[in-house]
Amino acid sequence: MEFFIISMLNGLSYGLLLFMLSSGLTLIFSMMGVLNFAHASFYMLGAYIGYTLSGVLGFWPALVLAPLLTGALGALFERYCLRRVHPFGHVPELLITFGLTYVVLEVVQLLWGRIAVDFAPPPALQGPAFTLVNHSVEGLRWVWGAVPLTLCSAADASLRIVCSPFPATRGFMMLVALAMLLSLWLLLTRTRIGLVIQAALTHPDAVQALGHNVPRVFMLVFGAGAALAGLAGVIGGSTFLTEPAMAATVGSIVFVVVVVGGLGSLSGAFIASLLIGVVQTFAVALDYSVGSVLAAWGLGLSPAWQASSLGHLTIAQVAPILPYLLLVLILIFRPRGLLGTRDA
Amino acid sequence: MNAYSVHDARWGSPRVWFVAALVMAVAPWVFGSGLAITMLSQMGIAIIACLSYNMLLGQGGMLSFGHAVYTGLGAFVAIHALNRWSAAALPLPVSLVPLVGGVAGMGFAALFGYVTTRKSGTTFAMITLGLAELVFAMSLMVPEFFGGEGGVSGNRVVGTPAFGISFGPAIQVYYLIALYTLASVVLMYAFTQTPLGRLLNAVRDNPERVEFIGYNPHRVRYSAFIIAGFFAGISGGLGALNFEIVNAEVVGAARSGGYLLFTFLGGATFFFGPIVGAILMVLAFVLLSELTKAWLLYLGAVFMLMVMYAPGGIASLVMRNLQLARHGLLRPMLGAYGLLGLASGLCALGVSALIEMVYHRQLNAAMGTQLRFLGGAVDTASPLHWCTLGAALLLAAAFFEWARKRFAVQWDAAQQAIEQARLQHAGEAP
Amino acid sequence: MRKSSHILIAALAVAFAGSALAQKGEVVKMVRIDAQSGLLGPVGVNQLKSYQFFAEKFSGKGNPAGVTFEVTGIDNKLSPTESLNALKSAIDQGVRYIIQGNGSSVALALTDAITKHNERNPGKEVLFLNDAAVDPDLTNSKCSYWHFRFDADTSMKMEAMSSFMAEQKDIKKVYILGQNYSHGVQVAKYTKETLARKRPDIQIVGEDLHPLAQVRDFAPYIAKIKASGADTVVTGNWGSDLSLLVKAANEGGYTGNFYTYYAGVTGTPTAMGTNGAGKVYQIAYSHYNMGGQMDKWMAEFKAKYNDDFYTGSVIRIYETLGAAMAKAKSTDPVKVAAALDGIRVDSFNGEVEMRKLDHQLQQPLYMTVWQKADKKYPYSPENTGMTLVPVKTYPNYVSSTPTSCQMKRPS
User: Where in chain C is the domain with CATH 3.40.50.2300?
Assistant: First the structure.
């Protein structure tokens, strides 16, 4: 039982991290039609800047400042590079962000080295937020904070006690992601600038005719998207690992989320990221091999196939690449994505 | 500037092909070392791959992030075929192995292409990305076909040599590759002149209109995809013969990214652009990384600059200057060009000196603080050197800005003159 | 034309050769083909520096043949294709000794290419010295007369590891976690084989393979391991896959032990930090606190390069090459290869032997555990304050494994 609860929470927290990342990307895409390849690079920049700042100012100020700095860098990029390429069409825009990934990777490696850095969460977030103690006789119990090890092992061999701590960093991740979702929604629907952004989404010329500085709005939105990625970076970097490869590993998954959710739809990105986070987490627990699944459905494979590595491949082994399979399937059967409003 | 304009005839003339064939035949005698011959072979392979990629990108407007899937799968099938042929002692010549790769590439393109080419644009790009990731992930998990970590190796020296050609020495393989390259380039060029090739351009520019005139854009894209897959497979098969080993990196993201980067760098809007890009690709991967540790940074920066200032790639720069020359306007520009070249050269030197110093401090700090840069020694620990270089860079940048403005004025004047001439020619202006 | 002048020079050299140290002062050029840029750049750079550092120590009077070793590096960006180009470049420069280690895929490509080159170009043979690529195939199904491996391969390390595990009576349930490619698959295979032989009562309660370097979140795997009730995890993971696993184990409250291969490689000590203290074990042929000459060298290396020296194979290669060249009285690769066959050398941790059958170096192995550095074991990699401390030493015969190699020897 605790396995299910903890796995569900793990899946949800991972999905919410993906949402933090993909929300910025969705925002940029809806606004400007640019699929920002370098979005994961801003994630990485946020993590590294957060690491440096937290060494100097402490984690909490870094949590606020690092995303702002990352957003500023994003705005600069938009102003000097992306804007120049905008008249050439969408393909060159994609390509310039593609080139940016190489440059950011090299610069990060130059400034911070090529091996992982030790970006530790603050003392308040270290250790578990709560622990589930599953006693074979007394049942499931919820305990805030950590549980001393002595209570986790039973002296009596007939009893079985399993302690499952849930890390505070993950809980914090979920809180920040939800707060971010709420504030984004409020910003877009309740504030004036949000209404301008929504209008510029579909009618940029009309908005410009009304006197709003649309290029400046674009720059702000790109910067905001980069800042969101930076925020995700600070949290992801301190929870997981801050290393130069972090952009590459998370980059492709974010694209999957955005496309599966539907290009241009924030709610779609939310559902897709939760879906992918939970599916990936639970798929790891499934040890059924492809061969056995097909056999259960009555499609037996020949002995040669069963013995081959393809037949032996378990769902757990393919779990991390399930998102790509989902991407291809969605694009084949429903190119608009789950909740997309515009076709790519 | 349209590549497929009336001036196409110049590219199609037998003279150009003859010169190209001559260059390819003579090259290994000019650059004789083992490394040079293998690089020439790789250039041939890359040329076919980049041209097939440009069939999708430049001619079809389809941005693919997974072209390496087709070259790579073609390579795997080719090497498996080679091994089967050697084991069964079939009397088939090794020189036909790349064709097997081509057929395999075509088959996979037919298999994946139907759903991939339904839409162009971002959807297409995303599907190719997803497929590429899937195939690469599977490559490590299915060792029967992909050979696991060691890949699949084969031996191209099998059977009795015909006419004394056993394909043992690298130079024999080079000539085989050169033949295939010439044939493929001619065929792909011919494709651009066929109705299907023209339709492909039309689909790139305005798919809706193509539907109005009665053609199905999906089918056009699909056919082009299959043909591109064929040539991609040939490129893969040649690679299998050249290295006699094929492993998972041939379907990797780095390779797909390389095709994209260098095809774009060479110029996606002209037929010969990818050829330039392919040659640059091999030079960059093999030689540039030996020259400097900062090669990835240079690559990314150059790519970004190209996208911003010359989105047509190197080919477009060449063609524009050829256009100037045709109107006799190039000679007066040479002075401005010279100044601009000097200024940008100085800037580039300054920037790269600083970058090299930074890299040296990071990676080679233990080798002492002295860095050998273009024959001179620079001390990375001395603030004086840093400041001097920094100041020199600022000066060079100012010089560059001045030269650029001067050049831009002259360039605009030349373009106006050309436009005037064109209008006069068309009778629309006195 | 060039070949005849080579013969002339060789003839002259033979004519003037008098003493047993005919090759004294001769320069032996070696090239290390490895990543010098990119993500694994630091490892490659560290190892190249190690070669150059010890080239000084083992040249001239430092080796019985009196030769001078010269090592340069070529960047292969971890790509087998680029490595083949690098090989061509090295051969063009007249280098006859190729060294490589990071990446069995590269090693397999190089072995294949070098064997073919030597077959097709008699008189221009090249030797391949493998210092870290541990795929057992290199000394089994894909073995080659021209390939010599100085690291202990996966099966040898597992033999020693399982001997240690067999002695730990509190190990009852083992979970195997690995990266889904040849290395991970082989670690799983040998774990099951050796444990079945040595401790049939140990239960393998689970086995999982995950895609290489892609998983960021190991919490689901930890949850699965906990649910299985395993008290020990055996893993061949390296790099981020290992550090994230140990981190997740700490956060997920998993208290079992980890038996690993690569806890000490560049980057992992920093990423592990104090996580896993007393719980992460590593099997290797050297460790940080070996005492004697090794300690002095490590201190010198750290002072000069501000980096840790951990590639003990480097020393072994120089020692064995020097001995072989003295025995063969020549630096010609064909003669040296014949001399390397079965050679025995006294190395920093005992006697090692280059087994004739498969060219696998037979050597002692150490089981070490990750813990805080103290007075007795002061050396701390990457300034983490932690170190790997030896708990057991295994002499050659323990880790020696049978081989299926059918080597084609030149006549």
Answer: 2-152+291-362, 155-284+365-399
Which domain range does residue B105 map to?
9-317
Tell me the backbone φ, ψ of residue C31, rounded to 5 degrees. -120, 130
**Count of domains for chain A:** 1
The ipTM estimated for the assembled molecules is 0.82
Superfamily of domain covering C2-152+291-362: Response regulator (3.40.50.2300)
Cα→Cα distances B405→B322, B330, B396, B412, Å? 22, 18, 14, 11
Residues 126-185 of C with CB under 8 A from B: 135, 137, 142, 180-183, 185
C23 token code pair: 């090759």
Q: In terms of C-beta distances under 8 Å and separation of at least 24 residues, what long-range contacts does C54-60 make, across chains too?
A: C54/C297, C54/C314, C54/C315, C54/C318, C55/C318, C57/C297, C57/C318, C58/C315, C58/C318, C58/C319, C58/C322, C60/C25
**What was the pLDDT predicted at B77?**
95
Q: What is the largest CA-CA distance in chain A?
A: 78
Test A320 with C211 for CB contact under 8 angstroms.
yes
* pLDDT tens per residue, range B226-278: 999 999 999 999 999 999 999 888 998 889 999 999 999 999 989 999 999 99
Question: What single-letter amino acid sits at B48?
Answer: I
**Residue at token pair 């590079």:** A81
**Amino acid at site A88:** F
SS3 assignment, position C97: strand
CA A158 to chain B, closest CA, distance in angstroms equals 41
Residue B1: inside a domain: no
Residue B225 lies in a domain: yes
Contacts of A243 in chain C (CB under 8 A): 240, 267, 271
Residues B332 and B297 in one domain: no
Residue of B nearest to A309 (CA): B142
- What pairs with residue C99 in β-bridges? C32, C129
Which residue has better confidence, C266 or B82? B82
CATH of the domain at B147: 1.10.3470
pTM: 0.85
Residue A338 is given by DSSP the state S
- Which residue on chain A is closest to B148 by alpha carbon? A309
Is A184 part of any domain? yes
Q: Which of B151, B289, B364 sits opposite C80 (nearest CB)?
A: B151
Which of B38, B149, B250 comes nearest C85 by C-beta? Answer: B38
User: Which residues does chain C have within 8 Å of residue B255's beta carbon, measured at their own beta carbons?
Assistant: none
Query: DSSP characters for B185-211?
Result: HHHHHHHHHSHHHHHHHHHHH-HHHHH
Q: Is B3 among the domain residues?
A: no
Q: Which of B123, B206, B208, B307 is best to mutate for the A interface (most A CBs within 10 A)?
A: B307
CATH superfamily to which C155-284+365-399 belongs: Response regulator (3.40.50.2300)
Is any Cβ of chain A less than 8 angstroms from the Cβ of B308?
yes
In this complex, the chains that touch A, judged by 3 or more CB pairs closer than 8 A, are B, C
Single residue among B317, B344, B365 that ends a domain in this structure = B317
Residue B264 distance to chain A (closest CA, Å): 9
Interchain CB contacts (distance < 8 Å): A and B: 117
- How far apart CA C366 and CA C288 sit, in angstroms, is 11
